[in-house]
Give the backbone structure.
Amino acid sequence: MRGRSIFRMFMIVVVFSLSFSVSSFTKGRDDLYKELEIFAEGLAVIEKKYVEEKEPHDLIYGAMSGMLLSLDSYSQFLTQEDYEDLIVETEGKFGGLGIEITIRNGLLTIVSPIEDTPAWNAGVEVEDIIVKIDGELTKGITLHEAVDTLRGDPGTEVTITVLHEKDKTLEDITITRDIIKIKDIKYATVLEDGIGYVRIAEFREKTSDDLAVALKELSDKGLEGLIIDVRYNPGGLLSSAIDISSQFIEEGKTIVSTKSRSEKERVYTSVPFKKKYLDIPIIVLINKGSASGSEILAAALRENNKAILLGETSFGKGSVQTIIPLSDGSAMRLTTSKYYTPNGTSIHEKGIDPDIEVAREMIEKTEDNVFENLKEKEKDNNNKENPEKEPLKHEFDYKKDNQILRALDLLKGLLVFKG
């Protein structure tokens, strides 16, 4: 009976492929769906030859996971349980660390720790590579597997072994999971000489409204210039990035566009706003932890001649993922389009270069050279004395932040020139 079910399953696949090909009348699709015969052949061989009996459900789910994984590091297959977990995650009812992660060059890489979360307070840094989770190597791990392992009940602990990009050292960091609560507008203050400063931690539903309130308060204090800090901001909602950009850009001007195979290019323009700040000089601070929405905002302000970018090249997350539910309760997270700046430049895998760069020494990291040298680095760490690590402090003192000071000097010069 089980053999018949497998046979019936791949025969349905083949029949579907043939009918789809006939209706499409395109050689490309004919060639693509013809390959499904190889898939059906493989299923039959596994059913007959594999050492253990496997359920058809497991085989198909495994094939789906592999297919999505082969597309890019952001697409993935979600089982019914995974999809339900994703819904729970969006409702904020999970224990997390407060980091945005991705797979880059085969390595589990931290895009950005989110400010005032367990990971941030534990000292996790941008572009740290997570080489172990609770002692298990992450070599070959998928993004979903990593997220699933790192997430857990609030109050529980997880130990990650990270390779710091900055000094190439290994460190075991034990982090206690917690409900991640993010204050979108982290700081909003006048620093000196009428120059305001706002730090945006993430782009969410209410972020634009919160920013409008903050800007009104700064304006009442005599706002003459503005520093917008989106360093370590991993992004968020596209609509939020558009609304925030709209507060500084004339109505109707292009903010971002998306291009995909399934629909025409979509152009998003600046929307009406009760109060717009069109005539003040602006500096946007970016770094390697600035991704997605942060990059949209930075590019939109620069290419509409509203801001100068200062800092480091941003992360380069310029693709859009759509959750597509499937009939059995599973789902696909599928990359469906890419972002383009107002000038038509792709952000993806490139990032945005600042106008004024603060350079950092970097080396090329790949899966092979990281894991090959892992044992040697562990040996070096074990041979060193282990002084107690000082607790990480995140008190805001702009006078100790070289990039903010550079931005201040630049804005003062612009204000003198303008005046």
